Inverse folding.
C-alpha cells in the first residue's frame, strides 16, 4: 500500500475547503439577491402573487422574471436603523382617493395604498400586471411614481396600473382614482315605457330542458335569465331580466373603464388601432365582475343566463364584438359591418355571437345579439331607443334626442324618419373643464345666481368637488340671465379670464371652460337644427320630444333651451324617458316580434352627415353662442 504524502494531503484538503468556502459565500450572496421561491429553472414556486410572475406560453406554472438584483430580505426583515424606516418617519407626503387620505411610505404600490384607503380596485392576476384591470388615473403626483414598465406600455398620459405604480417620492402629494366607479347613472326608463309585457323570448323551457329558438341547449336549472346591456362611451348599464315573467331582477351600472383610451369615440378608435384588444379586455372584465356580483346577490349561477342583448353606439358595439373599428374613424365613417351590408354581403347590420367566444361569464351556449345599426355613428343604441318609445308606429311628427358624448337626433314618424349623429365630446361630462366632473357624489348638479353669488345643490348633498353636466348647463344659463357672461362666453369684466365660483372650495370657471362647452353645445345645436330643417319642420311643429339618456334626465329644460342646448319645443311636449336604450334592449330580449320589426324598420331610416351640409360651418358658429335656437325654421 502506497504511503500517503501528508504534505500533498494537506494541500488538497485546503483546496477542497477553499472551494466549499467559496460555494458558501456564493450561496449566501445568491440568497441575498435571488428570490427563495425561484427554482433552478427560473420558475416561481410561490403560492401568492408577485409582480415578477409571468405566464408560461406552454405548460403550467409561472416564470420568474426577476433580475436577481433586488435584495429580497428587506421584504421580511425590519431594521429600525434602516434608511427606509427613517425616510418613512420623515415622509411628509400623502396619497388620496375619493376623499380619503393616507400617509406615504416608500416602496409601496398605488394598489397597496388602495387597500389602505379601502378603495376597491379590480384585479384577476394577483397584481402581476398581466390582467390590465387595475388601471387608475393619477390626477396628481405622477412624477412621484416609478416610471411605467413594460407591462404598462399600452397606457398613455396619466394612467397607470395600480399594481405596477411604485411610490418613490414620499414628500409629495399623490391623488388617484380607479376607472371602474359607479357614478349617478340612470338605470331605468320611465314607468309607462317599462310596463310588463307578455314575454315571447327566444329562450324557453319545457320538460326540464332549456331551448334557444327551439334548439335544446341545457337542462333547466331553476331560472331563465337574460341580460340587457347599454354600452355607452362613458357608462354601462346591465339589466338582469327574468325571461319567463318579463321582470327586471337586478340593475347594475358602472363607468365604462375604457376611458384610458380616450374620452371620446375618435380617440378610442385611434387607441384600438394601436393597442388592439385592450379596450375590449377592460370592458369584458368589468362586465364579468358585475355578472358575478349579481349571481352572489340574487343566489343564482351564471349558467342560468341564456341570452344577452346589446345596445350601444357603433364603435362601442363593434369593439365589444371583436370587430375592427378603424373604418368608423375615416370617411365615410362607416363600420366594416355596414360596408358589408351596403355591398350585399350581409342581410343585416345586427350581430349574433356565442357568449363563450366573447369571453362573457354566462351559460356556455348562451347567445349575444346586438340590435342593428342605422348608419355611420347612429348605432344600435338609437335602434333600441326607437323600440322603447315605439317611434316606428307614430303618425304625428316626433323627435328623439339621446344626449351623450355622441348625441343622436331622430325626427319623423312611421312614414318617414331622418337621423344624424353629433360628436359632442365629453365637455358636458366633465372632460376638458377645469372643475368639471362626472355625476359622482359631490358634483354640483344645479346652480342659482343669488345676490352676486351662486347657490347650489350637490349630488348626495356632499361637499362640492366640481360641476357635472346638468350643473354646467345651469351655470351657463344663470350667467347669461344675470349678464355675467355674453353670448360669446366673455365675462362681464372683459379682462377677467377666471371667475371664482366657490372660493372656499377652490372651484372656478374660466373663459377656456366656456369655450370648450360652447363647442360641445354647438354640436348638439347643429344636430337638432339640421335634422329638423332637413325633415321640413320647426321645433313648434314637434308633437313630442323624447329626451333619452341619463344626462338629459337631470337637465333643467328651461336652462337647456335658453342656451341653445335643446330645441325650443314647448315644455309640455317634452318627455324625459331615461335610459331608453337599455329599455329597448330589454324589449328585444323578451320579444322575437320586436326583434324582427326593428330589423326591417331601420333599413328605411334616412341618415344625413351633418358636416356635408352646405352651411354647416355657419350653423356651427351660430351654435357656439349661448343663445336659444330659432323656434321657427322657416324664417331662418
Amino acid at each position: 500500500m502506497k504511503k500517503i504524502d501528508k504534505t500533498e494531503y494537506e494541500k488538497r484538503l485546503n483546496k477542497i475547503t477553499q472551494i466549499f468556502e467559496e460555494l458558501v459565500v456564493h450561496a449566501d450572496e445568491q440568497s441575498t439577491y435571488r428570490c427563495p421561491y425561484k427554482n433552478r429553472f427560473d420558475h416561481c414556486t410561490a403560492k401568492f402573487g408577485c409582480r415578477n410572475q409571468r405566464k408560461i406560453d406552454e405548460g403550467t406554472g409561472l416564470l420568474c422574471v426577476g433580475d436577481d438584483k433586488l435584495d429580497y430580505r428587506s421584504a421580511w426583515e425590519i431594521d429600525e436603523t434602516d434608511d427606509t424606516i427613517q425616510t418613512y418617519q420623515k415622509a411628509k407626503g400623502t396619497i388620496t382617493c375619493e376623499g380619503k387620505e393616507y400617509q406615504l411610505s416608500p416602496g409601496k404600490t398605488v394598489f397597496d395604498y388602495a387597500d389602505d384607503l379601502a378603495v376597491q380596485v379590480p384585479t384577476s392576476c394577483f397584481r402581476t400586471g398581466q390582467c390590465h384591470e387595475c388601471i387608475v388615473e393619477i390626477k396628481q403626483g405622477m412624477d412621484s411614481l416609478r416610471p411605467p414598465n413594460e407591462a404598462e406600455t399600452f397606457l398613455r398620459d396619466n394612467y397607470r396600473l395600480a399594481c405596477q405604480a411604485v411610490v418613490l417620492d414620499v414628500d409629495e402629494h399623490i391623488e388617484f382614482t380607479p376607472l371602474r366607479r359607479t357614478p349617478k347613472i340612470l338605470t331605468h326608463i320611465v314607468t309607462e315605457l317599462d310596463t310588463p309585457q307578455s314575454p315571447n323570448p327566444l329562450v324557453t323551457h319545457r320538460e326540464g330542458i332549456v331551448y334557444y329558438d327551439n334548439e335544446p341547449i341545457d337542462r333547466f336549472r331553476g331560472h331563465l335569465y337574460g341580460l340587457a346591456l347599454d354600452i355607452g362611451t362613458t357608462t354601462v348599464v346591465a339589466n338582469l331580466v327574468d325571461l319567463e315573467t318579463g321582470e327586471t331582477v337586478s340593475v347594475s351600472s358602472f363607468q365604462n373603464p375604457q376611458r384610458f383610451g380616450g374620452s371620446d369615440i375618435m380617440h378610442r378608435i385611434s387607441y384600438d388601432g394601436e393597442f388592439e384588444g385592450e379596450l375590449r379586455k377592460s370592458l369584458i372584465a368589468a362586465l364579468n365582475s358585475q355578472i358575478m356580483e349579481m349571481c352572489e346577490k340574487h343566489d343564482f349561477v351564471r349558467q342560468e343566463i341564456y341570452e344577452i342583448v346589446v345596445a350601444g353606439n357603433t364603435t362601442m358595439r363593434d369593439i365589444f364584438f371583436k370587430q375592427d373599428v378603424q373604418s368608423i374613424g375615416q370617411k365615410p365613417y362607416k363600420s366594416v359591418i355596414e360596408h358589408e351590408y351596403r355591398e350585399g354581403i350581409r342581410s343585416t347590420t345586427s350581430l349574433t355571437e356565442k357568449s363563450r367566444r366573447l369571453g362573457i361569464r354566462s351559460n356556455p351556449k348562451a347567445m349575444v345579439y346586438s340590435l342593428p345599426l342605422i348608419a355611420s355613428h347612429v348605432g344600435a343604441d338609437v335602434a333600441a331607443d326607437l323600440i322603447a318609445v315605439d317611434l316606428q308606429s307614430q303618425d304625428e311628427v316626433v323627435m328623439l334626442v339621446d344626449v351623450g358624448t355622441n348625441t343622436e337626433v331622430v325626427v319623423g314618424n312611421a312614414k318617414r324618419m331622418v337621423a344624424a349623429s353629433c360628436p359632442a365630446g365629453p365637455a358636458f361630462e366633465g372632460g376638458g373643464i377645469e372643475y368639471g366632473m362626472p355625476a359622482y357624489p359631490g358634483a354640483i348638479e344645479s346652480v342659482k345666481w343669488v345676490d352676486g353669488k351662486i347657490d347650489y345643490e350637490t349630488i348626495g348633498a356632499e361637499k362640492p368637488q366640481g360641476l357635472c353636466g346638468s350643473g354646467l348647463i345651469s351655470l351657463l344659463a344663470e350667467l347669461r340671465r344675470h349678464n355675467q357672461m355674453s353670448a360669446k362666453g366673455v365675462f362681464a369684466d372683459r379682462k377677467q379670464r377666471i371667475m371664482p365660483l366657490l372660493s372656499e372650495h377652490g372651484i372656478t370657471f374660466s373663459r377656456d371652460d366656456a369655450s370648450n362647452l360652447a363647442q360641445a353645445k354647438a354640436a348638439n345645436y347643429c344636430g337638432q337644427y339640421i335634422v329638423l330643417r332637413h325633415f321640413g319642420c320647426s321645433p313648434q311643429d314637434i308633437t313630442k320630444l323624447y329626451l333619452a339618456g341619463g344626462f338629459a334626465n337631470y337637465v333643467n329644460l328651461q336652462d337647456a333651451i335658453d342656451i341653445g342646448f335643446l330645441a325650443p319645443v314647448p315644455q309640455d311636449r317634452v318627455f324625459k324617458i331615461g335610459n331608453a336604450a337599455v329599455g329597448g334592449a330589454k324589449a328585444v330580449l323578451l320579444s322575437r316580434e320586436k326583434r324582427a320589426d326593428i330589423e326591417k324598420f331601420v333599413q328605411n331610416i334616412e341618415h344625413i352627415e351633418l358636416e356635408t351640409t352646405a352651411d354647416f360651418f355657419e350653423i356651427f358658429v351660430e351654435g357656439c353662442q349661448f343663445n336659444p335656437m330659432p323656434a321657427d325654421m322657416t324664417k331662418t
Summary: DSSP finds 16 helices and 28 strands in the chain.
